[in-house]
Amino acid sequence: MKSLILFFPILLAGCSKQVLPSGSYELNFVSSVWKQSESAKWREGKESVRQQMLGSLINENLAGKSREQIINLLGSPSTKMDPDGEGPSLSYPTGPQRDSYFGVDYEWLIIQFDSKNNYKSYYLASD
Q: What is the rounded CA–CA span in Å between residue 12 and residue 124?
């Protein structure tokens, strides 16, 4: 019974996080590297540099930050998903879609904010 009581909090904590695609924890996040346009480009046999830094970025660098701080950290967001750049979220291309049979689409990091313009959540999308 004691082990069952310890198991449930661990199970619930594990269910609250989105599982990132393979290769997302290969590199530590480095702002100057992320900001380089080639960091989102496909590399033969490997995820893009941004994709490899994604886990570190999300787990260690977004919480508690304002919209302005995140733009300073990641650079200007893409306008493809938000043409005027003033929408309720920011979007950044991370590289070719992963964990897909064909992988012809691009993967995007979408960062959402609360009513005070502070980081709220993220999700990955494909175009």
A: 22
Query: Cβ distance 31 to 53 under 8 Å?
Result: no
Tokens read off for 33: 């590297």
Q: 42-87, pLDDT tens digit by residue?
A: 877 789 999 999 999 999 999 999 999 999 999 999 877 665 566 7
Q: What is the pTM of this model?
A: 0.79
Q: 3-state SS string over 42-105?
A: CECCECCHHHHHHHHHHHHHCCCCEHHHHHHHHCCCCCCCCCCCCCCEEEEEEEECCCCCCCCC
